[in-house]
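Working notes for the structural subgroup meeting. M.R. asked for a predicted model of this chain before we commit to crystallization trials. I am recording the input and output together here so anyone reviewing the notebook later can reproduce the run.

Input as submitted:
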Amino acid sequence: MVHKAPPHLPPPAEAATERPSKSQRKREMTALQELGESLLRLPAAELARIDLPEPLREAIAETARIGSHEGRRRQLQYIGRLMRQVDPEPLRAAIDHATGESKQAVALMRRCERLRDALLADDAALPGVLADLPRADAQQLRATIRAARREHTEGRPPKHARQLYRWLHEQYTSKPEQP
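Returned structure, recorded in token form:
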């Protein structure tokens, strides 16, 4: 005996192509809400650089003022609902870049670490860095390198080595791209 689908219901293959399942829609909404939460964790300066619709920007700002747990939860749901009207991919890319998770940010971080290590290990690396960064203050850079080397030999915490890394990162972040 062969069972057929009732005539008022579409065959199973057609039903699957019409719309996603309720579970799939819920997963998508949760992902958008989590994306909205990651926007909340960004510093205000980074958030200002991201192109957001004004209602979403206002909802994010309002979340910072909400103190109760339940009110915050409802606000996050509202942000998730607003996120449905926004293309999430540019937002994900902007968040990744802002949090340092993009490939370019990781590559820059590793480059600055290698340069810092090379500068601390040998004076021969300094001319290359100065040639790459013509506006750099060479005297300040040399002083920072000497202080970091001194810290290392004395076994002190690497305050100046960190300062050197931050300086390199800042210089290469603000440096205009070469064509």
